[in-house]
Every structure is written in C-alpha cells, then in structure tokens.
Amino acid sequence: MLLCINKYMKNRVTKPGLIAMSQKKSCKHCGKETTLGNVKKHEDACYLNPINLQECVICKSPIKNYKTSKGTCSKGCANKHFRSGENNGNFRGTRYSTICFHHHKKECIVCGENNIVTVHHYDHNHNNNEPENLIPLCPTHHQYVHSRFKEEVQPIIEEYITEWRNSV
Questions:
Q1: pLDDT of residue 48
Q2: Which of 29, 37, 87, 105 is most buried, judged by most C-beta within 10 A?
C-alpha cells in the first residue's frame, strides 16, 4: 500500500499556485528560510528588522521575543536586571538582617537558637536599621515580643541592648 501512495505522489498533477508556496526565500534580516508567500509577513515581524529591533538592557544583544521579554533577552539577563541592585528586595548589602548579623551573633538572645533566627526592630520602626535597633530572636521569642507575653522577654532584650552598647 505504501508503494501505491508513493506512485500516486510522483504522478499527481500540481497546481501552479502550489509551486510558488513550496519555493523558499531567505529573510533579508535574519536569513531564516520561509515560503515565498510568507516571506514579506516574516520580514515585517522579524526581530532583526530595524523597525522592531530592541536590545537587551544587560548584554545589548537583540531580543528575539520583544513583546513578552520586558527588556531582556534571556532568563540569565532577566535575573541580573530584576534581581540585583540596591532597589531590589533580594539585595543583601543593606538589608536589615545583613546589618544585624554583621553586628550581632546569629542566635536568639533569649534561648540561643541558631538555626532559624529573625530580626526584631526594637523601636518597631522598620526604617531604623541601626545595629542597636536590630535584635536577633528566634521566631517564637519574636512572636512573644508582639503578643501579650511581651513581659516575659522584654527584660532580657533590654539587658542585652545595655550590654551590647557597653561592649561597642
């Protein structure tokens, strides 16, 4: 049966319009081969067409899918662009936790927990990231500070702050 199909394909009569559709032509911008009927459409939408050309903000290479890329050409460039710098939440240079653990030991001042340590702003002002305002606490004791059990940990925190100021 396969032989019959191959004979049929070899002997069939082709319409003149189908010949033009099967011929290929290269895009003048990127060199991709497309059919004659689609070459103009491709060239108009080609990412290397000077009208459409957008460069990556990181590496300056052309962005292939410029409609959905948000200014970058790849995930690597996107990570560099969106996940770095001082204005990013993941930036570790001036984060309050980095400042705290630079000046204080990374362990809860109440119980000594050192696996999971959070940072408490002593004056409750999250814009004040001075080392004396940042207190390392485990999640449990941090929750105590923000609950009705505050009296159980507050004297320990105040004593720690006094000792820390005297040592600096």
A1: 84
A2: 29
Mean pLDDT of the chain: 81
pTM for the full model?
0.47
Q: Compute the average pLDDT of residues 5-30.
A: 64
| Residue bearing tokens 């292939």 | 64
SS3 category, 2: helix
Both tokens assigned to 70: 């948000």
Give the number of other CB atoms < 10 A from CB of residue 110: 20
Residue type, 129: N
Q: Which residue type sits at 95?
A: R
Strands (E), 49-145: 118-121, 134-137
Which structure tokens are listed for 55? Answer: 């460069």
